């Protein structure tokens, strides 16, 4: 066989092999005919098809057997005053963290309805995250643009989401102010456009800063240019959110509305007087992630709200261990930062999170049988929303039957602004809880002394709560 014929033969074999491989993996005519047999076209099939074609699937899957009267009694409950509303923003983490702190302040000083300014803290959150991105760009300038970390930075220059680390990072540095001192604006309640513009500017200036670093600019020069960029970001934030106060006068009222005292504060002095909590060291974050080893400490790289802040560090535990700490906290009238996969089996009209709310299996004629570990591993479930855990209903043996959270979707959503959670749903879709260390057993606190296993910033399990 001459060389030309041999080359043609080899090429033909390669093409035949590729075609055979494609044929083996594709949907053949015979396979398609078999697939089509799954739809019988019975009267039941046609009725379901007609119903789904014109209705919301959730309405059709609503489990009528689960629509009996909802039990709203709770054996142990932390009282709250006033439901907050994050509106069309991803600031659930911020509302939840501040709601935990305000509950403590209301109880200690016997206040009526009260809120901290979410806009004030959010302003500094956006500025600090901008600096976190820019400094991250400088730190990684020697890596190529397609490096995983560099790619992650430019994909995620800024967001309005976050976790409890943001509360500890920001409040400890910038303090707090009452809501009336820096109220909401259209951009704080509808964050997407502002964050999009800020992100666009950060990406543009991040490229320029990266080029300067690659060319060998000195630290002083890079710091100077970064400061100028942050000046632009600050101005954009002021235009959208207002000027953060440095000093203000505030009158404290009792629960009947009577004035108690009027003083002049700075945000830090206000925080120290009315909260005065070491949020960095007095709390421990707990995770229930069965896809990773329990009784281990983990740290998420670059998952913080300040460059000079603290990475999110947590202990991974079985859900029953977490429940015991939650019960201890509630019994001591202390609410907690709680996050979960809120969209799963949520009946918002009733304000109920229950795995029995919807019967998708009967409607679709199939099963959905993954457990929590499998849902995490296949990206089918993860923490998406933060709320304030503030009630539990215990049976006579002390085991929880149901839980309740204070939400931040307004008083007209759910059960009077709250969501009631069955214990079965809690097991399946609860992910994170932040408790004061005094409610954690000594063996759990010992785990915090481990050298944390560091996980990458882009781990999909650790997206920001919104």
Brief write-up:
With 466 residues, the protein is α+β, with helices and mostly antiparallel strands. 43% of the residues lie in helices and 15% in strands. It has 17 helices and 14 strands.
Distance between the termini: 68 Å
Beta content comes to: 15-25%
Secondary structure class reads alpha+beta
Please tell me the overall pLDDT: 93
Descriptive account of the structure:
The protein is globular and about 85 Å long. The strands form two sheets. Strands 1, 4, 5, 6, 7, 8, 9, 10, 11, 12, 13 and 14 form a twelve-stranded mixed β-sheet that branches. With 466 residues, the protein is an alpha+beta fold. β10 and β11 form a beta hairpin. The termini are far apart. The chain is 43% helix and 15% strand. It contains 17 helices and 14 strands. The model has no long low-confidence stretch (mean pLDDT 93).
């Amino acid at each position: 066989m001459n060389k030309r014929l041999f080359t043609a033969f080899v090429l033909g074999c390669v093409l035949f092999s590729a075609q055979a491989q494609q044929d083996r993996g594709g949907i053949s005519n015979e396979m398609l005919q078999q697939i089509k047999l799954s739809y019988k076209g019975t009267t039941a099939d046609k009725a379901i098809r007609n119903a789904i074609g014109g209705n919301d699937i959730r309405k059709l899957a609503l489990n009528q057997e689960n629509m009996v009267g909802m039990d709203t009694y709770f054996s142990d409950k932390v009282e709250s005053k006033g439901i907050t509303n994050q509106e069309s923003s991803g600031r659930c983490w911020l509302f939840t963290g501040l709601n935990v702190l305000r509950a403590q302040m209301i109880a200690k000083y016997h206040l009526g309805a009260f809120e901290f300014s979410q806009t004030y803290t959010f302003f500094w959150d956006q500025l600090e995250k901008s600096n976190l991105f820019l400094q991250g760009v400088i730190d990684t300038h020697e890596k190529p643009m397609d490096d995983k970390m560099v790619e992650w930075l430019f994909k995620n220059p800024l967001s309005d989401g976050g976790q409890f680390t943001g509360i500890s990072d920001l409040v400890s540095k910038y303090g707090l102010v009452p809501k009336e001192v820096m109220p909401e604006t259209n951009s704080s309640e509808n964050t997407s456009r502002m964050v999009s513009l800020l992100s666009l500017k950060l990406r543009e200036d991040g490229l320029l800063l990266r080029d300067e670093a690659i060319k060998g600019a000195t630290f002083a020069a890079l710091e100077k240019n970064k400061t100028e960029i942050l000046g632009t970001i600050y101005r954009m934030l002021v235009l959208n959110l207002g000027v953060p106060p440095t000093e203000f006068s505030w009158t404290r009222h009792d629960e009947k509305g009577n004035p108690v005292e009027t003083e002049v504060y700075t945000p830090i002095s206000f925080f120290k007087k009315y909260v005065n909590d070491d949020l960095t060291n007095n709390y421990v974050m707990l995770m229930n992630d069965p896809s990773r080893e329990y009784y281990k400490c983990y740290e998420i790289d670059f998952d913080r709200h300040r460059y000079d802040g603290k990475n999110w560090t947590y202990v991974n535990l079985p859900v029953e261990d977490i429940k015991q700490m939650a019960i201890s906290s509630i019994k001591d009238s202390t609410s907690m930062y709680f996050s979960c996969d809120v969209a799963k089996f949520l009946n918002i009209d009733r304000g109920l999170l229950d795995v029995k709310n919807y019967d998708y299996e009967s409607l679709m004629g199939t099963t959905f049988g993954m457990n929590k570990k499998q849902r995490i591993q296949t990206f089918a479930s993860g923490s998406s929303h933060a709320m304030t855990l503030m009630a539990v209903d215990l049976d006579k043996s002390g085991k929880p039957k149901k839980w309740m959270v204070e939400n931040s979707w307004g008083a007209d959503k759910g059960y009077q602004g709250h969501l009631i959670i069955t214990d079965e749903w809690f097991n399946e879709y609860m992910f994170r809880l932040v408790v004061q260390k005094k409610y954690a057993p000594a063996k759990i606190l010992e785990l915090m002394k481990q050298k944390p296993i560091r996980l990458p910033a882009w781990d999909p399990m650790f997206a920001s709560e919104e």
